[in-house]
Specification:
about 80 residues; alpha+beta; three-stranded antiparallel sheet; 1 helix
């Protein structure tokens, strides 16, 4: 699952690929926003952890992983 996270006052969004389903990611984001920790914590496919303070979240975009098309037939 591809996840893009917009962070306030940051020029670029964070992008990661996760093995979690869209529902699991949505539940994690919701728990982070309503919880007391104040951190959104996600793990990417390679096991790297991404931590974002919830008060700095602008948006979280959850979408299917797109296959990278190569060659002239991809047009």
């Amino acid at each position: 699952m591809e996840v893009k996270i917009g962070v306030q006052h940051a020029p670029r969004e964070l992008s990661l690929e996760s093995k979690q389903t869209a529902e699991e990611i949505e539940r994690t984001v919701t728990e982070a926003l309503t919880g007391k920790t104040g951190l959104l914590s996600l793990v990417d496919e390679r096991g790297r952890k991404v931590l974002v303070p919830t008060d700095r979240l602008a948006y979280v975009d959850i979408g299917e992983t797109s296959a990278h098309k190569v060659g002239f037939g991809a047009v």
